[in-house]
């Protein structure tokens, strides 16, 4: 079973992948929090911040980020030609969320 998991993770160690995934999701969370902070005066003025409303409003963005961050980390060595580190996985999470947000705004 351990060999199958290593094969799925493209010969990366599961612990290393887990740490990189954690940093990638932290980067995506930072991107989301920056967006919330950007709109905070309007949110505070109108009715306050509702977590349920934010989740319903951004459900596709969150789902796509949840899928794209691991894929980006898995294939980073092939795409970028260097081994990914914690900092680059943080940037990958941040940039993937920003890209998804920009594409969703372009669609509307």
Through-space gap between termini: 45 Å
What average pLDDT do the residues reach?
79
Multimer state: single chain
Helix content: over 70%
β-strand number: 0
Report the principal-axis shape: elongated
- Structural Rg: 16 Å
The percent range for strand residues is: under 5%
Low-confidence stretches: none
In DSSP terms (H or I, runs of 4 or more residues), the helix count works out at 7
Order of helices and strands: HHHHHHH
- Domain count: the total is 1
Characterize the largest beta sheet: strand count, sense, and whether it forms a barrel.
none
Describe what this molecule looks like in 3D.
α5 packs across α7 (86-107). 82% of the residues lie in helices and 0% in strands. The chain has helices spanning 2-8, 14-38, 40-46, 51-57, 59-74, 76-80, 86-107. The chain is elongated. It has one domain (2-107). The chain has 108 residues and is mainly alpha-helical. The mean pLDDT is 79.
In short:
This protein has 108 residues and is an all-alpha fold. It has helices spanning 2-8, 14-38, 40-46, 51-57, 59-74, 76-80, 86-107.
Structure keywords:
single chain, 108 residues, mainly alpha, 7 helices, 82% helix, 0% strand
Topology, pairings included?
Elements: H1 2-8, H2 14-38, H3 40-46, H4 51-57, H5 59-74, H6 76-80, H7 86-107
